[in-house]
Amino acid sequence: MADRYNIHSQLEHLQSKYVGTGHADMTKYEWLINQHRDSYASYIGHHHMMEFFAIAENESKARIKFNFIQKMLQPCGPPPEKPKED
């Protein structure tokens, strides 16, 4: 029983410290947003990845970086409509 409590407290600590780790009320859309933004941030932060994308798309590194930053705003499109409560 003590191990279970310890694991849950560690998980709660991680969830409060890092936004992308999720929580029980997180929707699939929010989870995907976090994954896409983390991926784009990683691509921008690693110089060799930027070079790879620039060569693959035949664009400058600055243009690729600009496009990735723009995609971070709404990487999965607009949020889905929430069901109306009566």
Automatic annotation (TrEMBL):
Name the record gives this protein: Splicing factor 3B subunit 5
InterPro entries listed in its UniProt record: SF3b5/RDS3-10, Splicing_factor_3B_subunit_5
Main localization category: nucleus
Keywords assigned by UniProt, alphabetized: mRNA processing, mRNA splicing, Nucleus, Spliceosome
Family indicated by similarity: Belongs to the SF3B5 family.
Location(s) in or outside the cell: Nucleus
GO biological process, one term: mRNA splicing, via spliceosome
GO cellular component terms, A-Z: precatalytic spliceosome; U2 snRNP
